[in-house]
Amino acid sequence: MTLLELAKKQGKAKVAIAARVGGAVLDLSMPAPEDGSAGWVTAADPEGLEVLRHSTAHVMAAAVKDLFPDAKISIGPAIENGFYYDFDVETPFTPEDLARIELKMAEIVRADLPFVREEVSREEARGRFRGEPYKEELLSEIPDERVSLYKVGNFIDLCRGPHLPASGKVGAYKLMNTAGAYWRGDSKNRMLTRIYGCAFATRKDLEAHLALLEEIKKRDHRKLGKELDLFSVNDEIGPGLILWHPKGAVVRRIMEDFWRTEHARAGYDLVFSPHIAKLDLWRVSGHLDYYRQSMFGSIEVEGQDYQIKPMNCPFHIQIYKSRMRSYRDLPIRYAELGTVYRYEPSGTLHGLLRVRGFTQDDAHIFLRPDQLDEEIFSLLDFTLFVLRRFGFDRYDIYLSTRPEKYAGTVDNWEKAEAALKKALDLKGLPYEVDPGEGVFYGPKIDIKIKDMLGRSWQCSTIQVDFNNPERFEAEFVAEDGAQRQAIMIHRALMGSLERFFGVLVEHYAGAFPAWLAPVQVDVLPVTDRQDGYAREIVARLRAAGYRAEADLRNEKLGFKIRESQLGKVPYALVVGDREAERKQVAPRKRGGEQIPAVSLEEFLEILGGETDKPLN
RNA sequence: GCCGGCGUAGCUCAGUGGUAGAGCAGCUGAUUCGUAAUCAGCAGGUCGUCGGUUCAAUCCCGACCGCCGGCUCCA
Fold first, then answer.
1. A313 catalytic, yes or no?
2. What positions of strand B are covered by protein, i.e. any atom < 7 Å from a CB?
3. Strand B contacts (CB < 7 A) among A residues 456-475?
4. Are residues A53 and A103 in the same domain?
5. What is the per-residue pLDDT across A484-523, written as a single tens digit (0 to 9) for each?
6. Residues A342, A317 within the same domain
7. Active-site residue (options: A307, A360, A371, A530)
8. Which has more pLDDT, A174 or A2?
9. What is the CATH number of the domain that holds A151?
10. A556 CB neighbours strand B below 7 A
11. Measured from the CB, is A525 under 7 Å from any atom of strand B?
12. pLDDT tens-digit series, residues A206-217
């Protein structure tokens, strides 16, 4: 008896697309276990959805092979929200090709062709995939003597499976776009043409996903940055270099003010360092060996090579080394909003999120080995405090451990990894271990924040470093009078101001909370009779430390309200004859909610409640 | 950096082998208005840059620059 027959018996044949037997997900065509103990996987299950997506990829490949017989197939896995398949073709697919492929797919789905699994020897499989060089390459690397093939219609693919019982079970899908992708993700290999598609169990799920994509488009910080006049990048200046316009600059200033205040309070010393330094500095630090290709070229000055800084750490180390340090002085914490420049490949630049010049909210902490646990613990606290303040309270945390190529001793690495782990455990923070993903100089904790739409953004990083203190001989005098090597922690909380600002824009869809809003209050006179009163209100708001503007243009109230709301200003204060006469204002929130007219003092109470304290 | 797409007024976009259009924004004037767009007029472009094909190029071809979607990378 097959699993499909068993499913029929149990009345599950309609919904089941695969079966769970033991720990494995199997095709329904596989034999059922004697005792009939099988679980049913449906398209509503995560595993089922993956099967559905993977099978949709096969259906697409079948359609492509039908329309473009010369296309060479490679691989086509399920991914988040859908699938892709990479083909080697002479000329990449056009959007019109995608439409044709989609139609052909619909044919295959309508025909409800069975997915047929076949197990053959590797040698036989090699014969079947003659003329498919990518499949041949894969086959030659598979250690097993027997491999499985899946056939749908005339299309056969080397595949582990499992798959849907038939193409008719494919759900709602849509081909999205094409993209170049290196064979096996290696830039030394040939570039294939990838087709991305999304696939869901139901039309409704697909539509919800397309709606989400629309929402993401609406929140795009590049679009909002232009609309709200926050920042720009400019051809004449150069790609990846950000111009902060006055409104964006207000938000940045508030971010910086908050950051400086809290760092001073948390025991950091604020420092400044130059933008260039002798190239040798980066030779000593080791960055030149590891990251030369991401550094801007050096500049020759009076026979000496200088380098635009890609990092701040060597400068802070030199400040540390400017005099003898006692074990009593530690930890020493140097913090700087340090602007660095990195030569990112042109194809990776992206608005504020990937740039060539950016300001890190950087700090380097020098400490004794015995202080590591406690420092990491309080650092985690501090990081989460800062992130929460900006409205982020969901995180994905990763602990990255020793990579293959590393500096320092295994003993030190293990101690540092243990310290990081211990701090996370003590705080009760869930995290994932990324084995081998640490930086060459030490292990790290990365915190990705989740935005309003649940997307993750890498921002905070806490990295232990044994390498630099050794290379630069950053030492302290221990209790016994001996020179000991300090441990250094690199850390950035927002990561870079540019990137964090971009994430903030998308998180809030440009509607910043009142404490961050570039303009907090628009004062809107109904006619020019109230211009004087409006000016007075603005002056008083500004005197109280708020950012307020009057819209004195010769326009109707409706127009001014519309503009204020599109500008995402938290409050509009309508002032007409009534308000002017009674010395009141009529507040309106940007969402449209109207508040009955109140005195300015009462309004200041409301506003103050939202901004905590006016941070100017 | 690699593959593909795109580049027309400040912005969003239409358009054609015979040297360009709309809406919004801007300017001028009228309107004095109560919670998401008042009306009229005016002005605005070396069609990304440089080369080529052609009697003629914004349109076709090439190179470059930039942007977009991916890939690779991300201390």
1. yes
2. 1-5, 11-12, 30-38, 65-75
3. 461, 463
4. yes
5. 999 999 999 999 999 999 999 999 999 999 999 999 999 9
6. yes
7. A360
8. A174
9. 3.30.980.10
10. yes
11. no
12. 999 999 999 999
* CB proximity A346–strand B (7 Å threshold): yes
The answer on A388 and A257 residing in a single domain is yes
- The range of the structural domain enclosing residue A535 comes to 521-611
Check if A287 is active-site: no
The candidate with the shortest Cα–Cα distance to A335, out of A377, A376, A365, is: A365
Mean pLDDT score, A343-354: 94
Q: Are A409 and A426 in contact (CB under 8 A)?
A: no
A103-127 confidence digits (pLDDT tens): 999 999 999 999 999 999 999 999 9
What is the pTM assigned to this prediction?
A: 0.94
Look up A364 and say whether it is catalytic. Answer: yes
Quick check: is A239 in a domain? no
Measure A434 CA to B18 C1' (Å): 65
What is the C-alpha separation between A521 and A572, in angstroms, rounded? 6
DSSP state of A371: G
Asked if the peptide bond before residue A331 counts as cis, ω within 30 degrees of 0, the response is: yes
Residue A591 lies in a domain: yes
* CA A1 vs CA A4, A7, A276: distances in Å: 8, 10, 74
Q: What is the pLDDT of residue A161?
A: 83
Asked if A486 contacts A368 with a C-beta cutoff of 8 angstroms, the reply is yes
What percent of chain A has a predicted confidence (pLDDT) above 90? 82
Tell me the nt nearest to A241, Cα to C1'. Answer: B66
The answer to whether A530 is a known catalytic residue is: no
Round to a whole number and report the distance in Å from the CA of A105 to the C1' of B10: 45
Q: How far apart are CA A552 and CA A506, in angstroms?
A: 31
Active site residue A328: no
Question: What's the Å distance between residue A93 CA and nucleotide B55 C1'?
Answer: 38
Q: Which of A459, A463, A443 is nearest to A451 (CA)?
A: A459
User: Could you say which of A473, A508, A543 is where a domain stops?
Assistant: A508
Count of domains forming chain A: 4
